[in-house]
Structure formats: structure tokens, C-alpha cells
């Protein structure tokens, strides 16, 4: 192929993927590394890339210590309860103690944050969420990143990390290709911050045909953060912890503001409240430590998101669907009605399009909700991602190896969805993690840890051949057939994606099996994943755009394989409502009160799984009311 | 179909091609105008719609669940710092005009150039602080939170 090779040399910090995490990293890196060369490689255009491309109507992670609202440990407690105990409390505490400083800067930059006219504090949607007019959230943080970076390479799909050849397990940059020109790009860098985001379109979506792009997380969230890091041999954690969202049907429009601010609520087809009737049985499955309706009632301790999903799923399965969001009361107030619509326009326009198309007027009817297909990501109400070091002053030994947010590969850092065990970071927390990673990456370089990196031409050329293989393959075999897409020698990226989605759906607990899987199913799934892996060596790309889809698919495949191994390893149903292990339907705290950690050998592709300890840094008692309740019982 | 482009309005300027996060707005080689090459990878994110100087791009809801005959239009104005939406339902009963600010300040001008900030001291480098901290965390004289300051203690790890 006649594509040019373009080498960018002597980079200090390469940001691979500049969404919320990556822009935070690029911005902050300049402060700690005045003379450092900071470069961004992004597969789209950083002005509108990633999960926040269309904007956000809320910042979902803000403590408000300034207004006396919350302390970091309160947020740790909240995220821990929501994730059924399975979080990295050191990373969460660290993110939470810094996140407000990011938000205060956003306001200074011009972000319209709504205020509570009575108190003067930010207008709260819920305990952790503040409301913004955030249509331009992404262009704004992109601007900040551009002011700091030496160079921004848009439209580069990063496919692999480069590895140092003088020291094992040390990163040396990344490679990829320009999705427009096809040119091969080599970035030689001392440190890399991966901010390439989470994964949609791994499980078969509910939408079909033309609507397949209407997924909850963006269709361009290709699991590249995981694909890149797993490919380089970084350890991963909690990859079984996929998330299912209860959202407005078909459009997947957000419900947060509806529940929290508009005070709408759900009911079944008969207009009845349905959650509480599923909770007694559920309490037996998960234990009182995780679902204690009495305690939740007195203390406002939240009921974990997955458990509320469980009630939803069971209510529908019992024939009492659809579940409705009761909007007819709130929407009588014209102000609230406006907020309801703005909420969609600010972050999920497709839902407004759908309501306009189906004449849904939430003032006169209660719209339907649904539970989505599962997603693999690590910044919303779930914590998939890389096993990273925490900060020096908080982390216990098992969680600390020198540099904050550094993975188990030296010089390789993560932010946002890339980092595991840190749910509920959201946009602001992801940006904050990028900042933390950037500071640590500068220190890593200043400490001399990146000296003597060597990358051979052999490695560079080998990757080039690998990257363009799908186009070569197409050229060689295309003319064996008359026309069309059926070829005995190859599949195209769409065909491969369909296969991946179908087998993830059926064997790893997607929507068509009501989120159910078990050991037998997972083993069959893994076997089929191997066939798919072999076929991905023969994936064919007709042009550079298809080459982009081919590499997205390969990253999704690596991500999915990790999901299989993790789901197989954790022999319990930790998060009913996210997925079920039919052969181990209970929470098993005696054996599984641990974090799961995987390692894929980059040479052999073999997986090893281990358990890592959970450290609880903050006490259990949420507030006074709960303490009193406990005291009464003792 | 998510997005489509009106033949008579598009002049092939390529702004939509430049911005689409999904890489699916491409220029048709014959007509020299833009179109959506992969509708089933469109998020209806409206990035291209907002970027088109000629309002040549529109959205028709996904065929698998959205009936025809609706409209959600938008104009984004960085200079005025606002975004204006108009939603029209299929039966025409709902016709909403909604306006929202996108910035409170002249676009981008209040984002600092960190290269021009005084370099951080060694003490700051060795601390847990980020740029503008601790000031910006609480906007008072308070320091950053630590386990100690918040009365927390490391407890033994739980393995099983
Ligand atoms: C519908 C929706 C609603 C949400 N609502 C809220 C909310 O109200 N409040 C809130 O705070 N958060 C919200 N979030 C969550 C928030 O958007 C995410 O937590 C956050 O964006 C994650 O940041 P990230 O940097 O990890 O990923 P992203 O922001 O997705 O960034 C990933 C970046 O990597 C790039 N990339 C991917 N692959 C490659 C590759 N191979 N090579 C190069 N670049 C690559 C992408 O183009 C993108 O720029 C919402 C998300 C969604 C989807
Ligand atoms: S931005 Fe508008 S005018 Fe320009 S190419 Fe795209 S559709 Fe055509
Ligand atoms: S709406 Fe978004 S995803 Fe669809 S074509 Fe436009 S920019 Fe691309």
C-alpha cells in the first residue's frame, strides 16, 4: 500500500484519545511539564469527540465541599454501595477530593452552571449532580487541551501501543493510521495517557437496522482504551462489571433529571409501584448488607442501580410491562416541562426526535422506559478498566506502585473509562483523572524512569504491516467473486461486529437472554470468540474508513474476551440487574468480596485471573439516622 | 436515518466531514456534496447539523422505530453564546422553541495558557496538589482532603 509513514519523535506525553479524560490530561500536563512535548492522537475531532460529543445537561460528580454539601468520603460510600462494595476506594477518594477544582475552573472558563437562587450554590439535580447548560462542554475542554498541547493529531485511529525494547513491560509510544489519508503514524513517546473511552456495541443492541447507531453510550466508543491496554499486557480489573441502563425506550434519553429534579417516578402497566414487591426475595439473594429497604428508608441510603434494574426486569418478565415514567404531573409546570426537553437536547437529541416522531407529549401521556443492552465502561455507574496505581498518601501497598493512575505497564497511564474500580467519576471525574495522570506522568519522566527507550524499525514495520493487512486482504481476494459482500476468504467489519454482538448477547448475558449466563455458556462463548479471533485475521477493508471499523472491531473483540474471562472467574451474581450467573445466583461475600484482576499475555494470548483485596477506607455508617437504627438493633 | 443532506443547500464545504465523531459524513465523489455513508453508525448527535453553515443537514428519525413527519432543528451561535432549538411533533400539536446559553463568557478567552503560568515549586510537585489547588477545591483557605484530615484510617484489606 502506498501510504506514507509519518513519525513524530521525542514526545514526552502522548494522549491517546482526547475525550473528557484525555483533554484533562493534555491541559494539566503543560503545567507540570513546561518544556515537555505534549501530543494528542485522537480518532475523531477533539472538538466533538467521545461520549460528550453532543453535550451534557448535568455534571454528575461534584462534591460541593465549598457549600458545605459533601466530603470525598461521602462519595466513596455512595459509589461503594451502588457497586455492591466492589470499588477502589483509594482512587475514588482521590478523584473526589480534586473534582470540585475542575468544576470551578469550568465555570471560570464560561460554562453555564445553574444556580440555586435561594442559596446561591449550584443548582442540584441530586446529591451529586449539578445542572448545566452544557451543549458546548466538549468544545470547551477541547479548547483547554489545544491551548496546552504542542500538537493535536485529529483523525488518527490509534491501534497499538509501542513497547520499549530495552526494558520489558515499558511503554514507548503508540501507532495508528489517519482515517482520511490512510497514512501510517508513529508516535514515539516517553509516557502515554490512554483516554480512549469505554465500549458500546459489544452486546447486540435492542435497535435493529438503521437504528443500530442509537445506543446509549456513543457508537464510536469502541473499547479502544481496553483494546490498547490489554494488547500491551496491562492488567485489567472488574471487566465483568458491565452496566445495563434503565432509560426512555428506544431513544435511551437520560432519566437522571427526571427522577431527581422533576420528581417523576415509575409504575407498571396497571399504574402500580412495583419495586418494593421484588425486594424481599432480592434481599435474600444479595444479603442485608447490600439491600436493606428499612435502612434505606430512614437514611436515604441509595438502593444500588443494578438492584432497581432487577425489579424492572422482573416486573416486565412477569407480564406487567411496560414500565412507565410518570411525567404527567411534573410536566404540568411549564418550567419543569422545559427542563425535561432541554435535558434531551443537551445530551441525547435522538430522544427528542423520537418523541416528536411519535407524538409523545409527556404532559398528556407517561412515556415508556426500557432496560438497555449491556455496556462495558468505567466512569458511569460501573467500574471496568485497567488496574492502576493509586496516590501515594492514600493507597495501601497492593494498590500502589509509584505513580498515580499508572497501569501495570510502566509509563502507561489511564483516565476516565480506562481506569478500573472508579465508578461514578462521570465527565468531571474523568477530566480530573486525566489531570492526575498527567501530573504523575510528568513526575515519571522527571524521575528518569523513561530513559533509554528503544524502538526498533522492525517493531514499527511489523505494526504497519499488521495495521494495513485488512486492506491487503481485500485487494487479494476481492476479485475472486463477482460482486457483493459474500466471500469465502474474508468477512467485512460489519459482519464481524454482528457476530461479536450475537455471541456476547447469547453467551455473556445480553438482552435476548434476559442478562443470564453460566459457566457452560461462557465456555462455549469463549470457544466461539477464538474462531472469531481467527477470522479477524482475515477481516477485509475496502477503504480506509472500513479499516477504521476493522480496528474498532478488533479493540471490541479484545474487550469482550476480557469480559468473558472475568465473568467466568467471578462465581457469583454480584450485580443482579446487570447480569446473572445462573449457576451461582447469590452474592457470595465469603469467597468473592474481592476485586478481580486479569492479565492477558501479549505473546500467547493466554489469560490468568487473580483476586485482589478490597480495602475499605471509610466506615459503613452513612449518617446519623442509620447509626441510630443500627444502635437500636444491637 | 439519522442525518441526510439537502441536495440544493449543500455546497460541499466539508465542515460536517471535519466534525463527525463517527467518520460517516463524506463527500460524494459524483455530486461533490456531503452525505451520510453509514446511517446505522449515526448517534443523531447533531454535531454535523450544528456545524453546517448552510443548514443543509437534517435528521429523519431512525427508520426502525421513528415514524415520518417530525422535525428537530437547531442553530448554534458561538458569538452570541446561545443555541436555539425548534421541535415539531408529527401531528403538529407540539411546537416548541427552546433557547439555551452555551457559554457565559466570550468563547474560549478565559481558558488559561498554562505555559505562561509561574512554574510550580518542588514542594508543590511533591504534594498531591493539581494546578490552582488547593484554592480551587473549596475557594477558601482550606487545604486538600487527606485520610488524616477527614479522620479516616486504612483498614486491613479483605481478601474473601
Ligand atoms: C448519553 C450519555 C449521558 C451522560 N450523561 C452524563 C451527565 O449528565 N453528566 C456527566 O458528568 N457525565 C455523563 N455521561 C458520562 C460521561 O460522558 C463519561 O463519563 C465521560 O465522557 C468519560 O470520559 P472518557 O475520557 O473516559 O471517554 P470519552 O469522553 O468517550 O473519550 C474517549 C475519546 O477517545 C477517542 N478514541 C476512541 N478510540 C480511539 C482510538 N482507537 N484512537 C484514538 N482515539 C480514540 C474518542 O474519539 C474520544 O475522543 C454521559 C454519557 C452518555 C453517553
Ligand atoms: S457542512 Fe453543510 S454545506 Fe458543508 S459539506 Fe456538509 S452539508 Fe454540505
Ligand atoms: S449526527 Fe453526529 S454521528 Fe450522525 S452524521 Fe452527524 S455528526 Fe455524525
Helicity of chain B, in percent? 10-25%
Which spans of chain A of ≥5 residues are poorly predicted at pLDDT below 50?
none
Mean residue pLDDT of chain B: 94
Number of strands of chain B: 7
Cα-atom radius of gyration of chain B: 25 Å
Using the alpha-carbon principal axes, give the shape of chain B.
elongated
Head-to-tail CA distance between termini of chain B:
50 Å
User: What spatial form of chain A do the alpha-carbon principal axes imply?
Assistant: globular
The major sheet of chain B is characterized as: 3 strands, antiparallel
**Can you give the mean pLDDT of chain A?**
96
Instruction: Tally the helices of chain A.
Output: 18
The order of strands across the largest sheet of chain B is: 5-6-7
Unreliably modeled segments of chain B? none
Question: Describe it for me?
Answer:
The complex is a heterodimer of chains A (634) and B (160). Chain A is an alpha/beta fold and 634 residues long. Chain A is built from 18 helices and 19 strands. In chain A, the strands form 6 sheets. In chain A, strands 1, 2, 5, 6, 7, 8 and 15 form a 7-stranded mixed beta sheet that branches. Chain B is α+β, with helices and mostly antiparallel strands and 160 residues long. Helix content of chain B is 12%, strand content 21%. The termini of chain B are far apart. The interface between A and B is large, with 99 and 92 residues. Bound molecules: flavin-adenine dinucleotide and iron/sulfur cluster (2 copies). The site of one iron/sulfur cluster has 15 residues of chain B, from helix 2.
Question: Which tags fit this structure?
Answer:
heterodimer, A: 634 residues, alpha/beta, seven-stranded mixed sheet, four-stranded antiparallel sheet, 18 helices, 19 strands, B: 160 residues, alpha+beta, three-stranded antiparallel sheet, two-stranded antiparallel sheet, 4 helices, binds flavin-adenine dinucleotide, binds iron/sulfur cluster
Amino acid at each position: 500500500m502506498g501510504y506514507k509513514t509519518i513519525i513524530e519523535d521525542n514526545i514526552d506525553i502522548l494522549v491517546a484519545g482526547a475525550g473528557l479524560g484525555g483533554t484533562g490530561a493534555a491541559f494539566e500536563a503543560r503545567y507540570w511539564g513546561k518544556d515537555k512535548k505534549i501530543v494528542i492522537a485522537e480518532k475523531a475531532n477533539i472538538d466533538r469527540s467521545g461520549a460528550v460529543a453532543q453535550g451534557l445537561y448535568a455534571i454528575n460528580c461534584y462534591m460541593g465541599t465549598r457549600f458545605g454539601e459533601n466530603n470525598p468520603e461521602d462519595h466513596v460510600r455512595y459509589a461503594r454501595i451502588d457497586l455492591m462494595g466492589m470499588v477502589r476506594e483509594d482512587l475514588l477518594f482521590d478523584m473526589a477530593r480534586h473534582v470540585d477544582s475542575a468544576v470551578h475552573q469550568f465555570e471560570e472558563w464560561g460554562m453555564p452552571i445553574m444556580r440555586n437562587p435561594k442559596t446561591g450554590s449550584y443548582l442540584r439535580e441530586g446529591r451529586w449532580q449539578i445542572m448545566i447548560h452544557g451543549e458546548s462542554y466538549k468544545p470547551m475542554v477541547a479548547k483547554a487541551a489545544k491551548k496546552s498541547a504542542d500538537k493535536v493529531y485529529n483523525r488518527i485511529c490509534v491501534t497499538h501501543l509501542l513497547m520499549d525494547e530495552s526494558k520489558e513491560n515499558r511503554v514507548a509510544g503508540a501507532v495508528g493510521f489517519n482515517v482520511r489519508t490512510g497514512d501510517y503514524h508513529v508516535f514515539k513517546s516517553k509516557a502515554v495517557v490512554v483516554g480512549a473511552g469505554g465500549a458500546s456495541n459489544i452486546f447486540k443492541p435492542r435497535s435493529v437496522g438503521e437504528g443500530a447507531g442509537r445506543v446509549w453510550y456513543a457508537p464510536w466508543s469502541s473499547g479502544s482504551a481496553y483494546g490498547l491496554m490489554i494488547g500491551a499486557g496491562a492488567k485489567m480489573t472488574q471487566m465483568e462489571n458491565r452496566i445495563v441502563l434503565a432509560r426512555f425506550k428506544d431513544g435511551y434519553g437520560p432519566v437522571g433529571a427526571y427522577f431527581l429534579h422533576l420528581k417523576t417516578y415509575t409504575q407498571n402497566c396497571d399504574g402500580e409501584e412495583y419495586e418494593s414487591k421484588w425486594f424481599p426475595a432480592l434481599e435474600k439473594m444479595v444479603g442485608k448488607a447490600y439491600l436493606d429497604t428499612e435502612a434505606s428508608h430512614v437514611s436515604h441510603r441509595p438502593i444500588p442501580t443494578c438492584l432497581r434494574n432487577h425489579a424492572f426486569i422482573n416486573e416486565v418478565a412477569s407480564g406487567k410491562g411496560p414500565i412507565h415514567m410518570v411525567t404527567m404531573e411534573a410536566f404540568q409546570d411549564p418550567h419543569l416541562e422545559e427542563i425535561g426537553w432541554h435535558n434531551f437536547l443537551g445530551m441525547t437529541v435522538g430522544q427528542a426526535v423520537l418523541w416528536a416522531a411519535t407524538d409523545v407529549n409527556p404532559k398528556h401521556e407517561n412515556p415508556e422506559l426500557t432496560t438497555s443492552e449491556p455496556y462495558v465502561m468505567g466512569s458511569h455507574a460501573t467500574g471496568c478498566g485497567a488496574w492502576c496505581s493509586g496516590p501515594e498518601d492514600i493507597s495501601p501497598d497492593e494498590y500502589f506502585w509509584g505513580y498515580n493512575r499508572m497501569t501495570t505497564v510502566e509509563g502507561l497511564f489511564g483516565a476516565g473509562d480506562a481506569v478500573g474500580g472508579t465508578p461514578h467519576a462521570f465527565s468531571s471525574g474523568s477530566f480530573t483523572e486525566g489531570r492526575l495522570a498527567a501530573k504523575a506522568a510528568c513526575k515519571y519522566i522527571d524521575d528518569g524512569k523513561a530513559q533509554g527507550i528503544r524502538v526498533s524499525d522492525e517493531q514499527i514495520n511489523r505494526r504497519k504491516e499488521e495495521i494495513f493487512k485488512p486492506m491487503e486482504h481485500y485487494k487479494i481476494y476481492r476479485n475472486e467473486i463477482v460482486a457483493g459482500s459474500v466471500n469465502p476468504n474474508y468477512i467485512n467489519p460489519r459482519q464481524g461486529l454482528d457476530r461479536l454482538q450475537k455471541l456476547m448477547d447469547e453467551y455473556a448475558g445480553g438482552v435476548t437472554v434476559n442478562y443470564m449466563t453460566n459457566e457452560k455458556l461462557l465456555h462455549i462463548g469463549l470457544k466461539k470468540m477464538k474462531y472469531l479471533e481467527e477470522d479477524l485475521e482475515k477481516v477485509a477493508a475496502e477503504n480506509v474508513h472500513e479499516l477504521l471499523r476493522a480496528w474498532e472491531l478488533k479493540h471490541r473483540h479484545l474487550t469482550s474476551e476480557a469480559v468473558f474471562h472475568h465473568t467466568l472467574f467471578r462465581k457469583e451474581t454480584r450485580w443482579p440487574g446487570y447480569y446473572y450467573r445462573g449457576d451461582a445466583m447469590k452474592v457470595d461475600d465469603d469467597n468473592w468480596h474481592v476485586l478481580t484482576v486479569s492479565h492477558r499475555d501479549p505473546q500467547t494470548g493466554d489469560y490468568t485471573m487473580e483476586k485482589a483485596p478490597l480495602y475499605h477506607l471509610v466506615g459503613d455508617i452513612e449518617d446519623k439516622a442509620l447509626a441510630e437504627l443500627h444502635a437500636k438493633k444491637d | 436515518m439519522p442525518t441526510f443532506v439537502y441536495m440544493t443547500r449543500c455546497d460541499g464545504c466539508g465542515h460536517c466531514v471535519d466534525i463527525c465523531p463517527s467518520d460517516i459524513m463524506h463527500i460524494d465523489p459524483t455530486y461533490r456534496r456531503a452525505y451520510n455513508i453509514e446511517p446505522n453508525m449515526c448517534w443523531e448527535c447533531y454535531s454535523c447539523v450544528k456545524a453546517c453553515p448552510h443548514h443543509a443537514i437534517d435528521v429523519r428519525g431512525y427508520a426502525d422505530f421513528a415514524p415520518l413527519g417530525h422535525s428537530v432543528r437547531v442553530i448554534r451561535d458561538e458569538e452570541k453564546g446561545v443555541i436555539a432549538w425548534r421541535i415539531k411533533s408529527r401531528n403538529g400539536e407540539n411546537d416548541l422553541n427552546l433557547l439555551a446559553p452555551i457559554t457565559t463568557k466570550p468563547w474560549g478567552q478565559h481558558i488559561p495558557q498554562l505555559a505562561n503560568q509561574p512554574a510550580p515549586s518542588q514542594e508543590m510537585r511533591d504534594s498531591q496538589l493539581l494546578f490552582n489547588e488547593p484554592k480551587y477545591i473549596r475557594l477558601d483557605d482550606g487545604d486538600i482532603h487527606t485520610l488524616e484530615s477527614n479522620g479516616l484510617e486504612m483498614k486491613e484489606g479483605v481478601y474473601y
